[in-house]
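Help needed: design a sequence for this.
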């Protein structure tokens, strides 16, 4: 119980400090609802999901890190599209990111957040992420104001974060299978 209380206190501290620090540094000029959105995404979406998944599944540090990496990537992707104005600017092509997240969410549900299934779901999510700029280019969106290299580079970065999480889940799946493979007496 004390560990849960400590973790809840840590989440509240993180949630309170991020908007405060960003405001003090004036890194972004946020829209008025962006602070509320950030708190809801951090606490309600990311923090609560992390705690529920980790508490129900495994105590492995690698598993917890894989969940955290995937959720942090989702958070930043959502934040960049909703609160900050989108990776592809104000282009309707930004809706493709919700398709990417849908791939990940549906994959996690189908996998029941088991490590091997989560690895597959995150590889699929990474692939969907890599397809976004290709599709945007093919349909002719005028969304490459920052340059094609920057857009493809950013999407590759996000895809690699999803791949990193997938690889961590694979590692957990391998470690989890080892004790089951021992011969019966």
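Sure. Designed sequence:
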């Amino acid at each position: 119980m004390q560990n849960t209380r400590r973790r809840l206190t840590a989440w509240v501290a993180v949630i309170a400090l991020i908007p405060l620090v960003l405001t003090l540094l004036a890194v972004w000029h946020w829209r008025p609802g962006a602070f509320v959105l950030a708190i809801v995404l951090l606490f309600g979406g990311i923090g609560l999901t992390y705690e529920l998944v980790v508490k129900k599944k495994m105590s492995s540090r690698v598993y917890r890190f894989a969940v955290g990496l995937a959720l942090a990537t989702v958070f930043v992707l959502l934040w960049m599209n909703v609160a900050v104005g989108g990776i592809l600017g104000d282009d309707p092509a930004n809706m493709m990111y919700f398709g990417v997240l849908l791939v990940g969410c549906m994959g996690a549900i189908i996998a029941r957040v088991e490590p091997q299934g989560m690895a597959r779901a995150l590889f699929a999510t990474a692939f969907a992420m890599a397809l976004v700029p290709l599709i945007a280019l093919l349909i002719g969106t005028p969304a490459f104001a920052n340059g094609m290299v920057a857009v493809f580079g950013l999407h590759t970065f996000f895809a690699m974060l999803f791949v990193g999480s997938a690889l961590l889940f694979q590692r957990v799946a391998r470690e989890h299978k080892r004790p089951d493979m021992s011969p019966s007496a």
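The chain has six helices and no strands.
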